[in-house]
Amino acid sequence: MSIFQQAFAFFLPDDEIAEFAPLGSGRVNDTWLVATKAGKKYVLQRLNPAVFLKPAVVQSNLCRVTEHLQANLSVESGFSVFEVRHSPTGASAWTDSSGAWWRLISYLDGAAIDALADANQAQEIGAALGLFHQLLASLPLPPLADTLPGFHNTPLYLANYEAILPTDCLPEAADCRDFINERRADMRLLEDARQIGKITEQTIHGDPKVGNFLFSWDKKRVISLVDLDTVKPGLLLHDLGDCLRSCCNPLGEEVQNLDEVIFDQELFAAVLAGYLFHAADLLQPGDWQLLVDSVRLMSLELGLRFYSDYLAGSRYFKADHPHQNLFRARVQFALVRSIENQYSELTVIVKNFRA
């Protein structure tokens, strides 16, 4: 019996696997869609032990959040959340001989996309994230554990980058090094605001990129927000800024021509319209003030992380070729430039929503 079959049998010992295949385009965990001979479908996942050093805490957070969402979601919302499957003895995870954690969750039938086609999809994503934040604002104490200490702490990413930066600048990546140096002073923006209580902290998703929103098969309606391993205490602007970063780059993160990378104002307005319908009351004045800056900073931070991972040998983000994370960094930096070039116009959009 393969390790894959052992993992599945731990949860459903009486079910037989008919077929399975890799699912999604995630860069961290390994995920498969499993179909049984009885015609049921499940999602089997192996957590990446190099990323999630405390998998028991990750799994505990996941169970608390999914149970809270299931208890508070209305049928009318059209939004659903997957169910964590337990073994016959009540365990929510299985550990293999290498120490890696496996889990089984219910399959949600829908379509994942990597980039938005129109403003309706953008508004749907904004509404889903706003509903997610509003529901989790009432998550009972104690707070979730911080499964990824330092996640979205941009100054910390900068320090890690400087620790691995070669003394001699790599000629093929000098542009990235210069780009980061020119924006070094901006890296503390959200952390400084957090420390003085200027912006809102609560439970967040942690990685609300386009690919983590599940659409109906006609791609007109968001039916779920998946990949909840990064759910943790954080800043609303981490989520909102990161979501806008991903949504408003219509060509996605694997663009071949950097000159084509743009930050789309129409999609920006549509995401905000959807989000504010559900969650406007969660934002305090500091959140509104730093909203556009948060999008720029999340783009800069991801580019910094891609470039740092490239320098470290692509240990975190999966890469198909040695320079893929370098190119991913350049895409994010091109997005930062586009945001900077439209900063005044984006600020006006935010002010109009707040009025």
From TrEMBL:
GO terms for molecular function: transferase activity. Residues 20-255 form the Aminoglycoside phosphotransferase domain. InterPro entries: Aminoglycoside_PTrfase, Kinase-like_dom_sf, Pseudomonas-type_ThrB. It comes from the Bacteria. This is Phosphotransferase enzyme family protein.
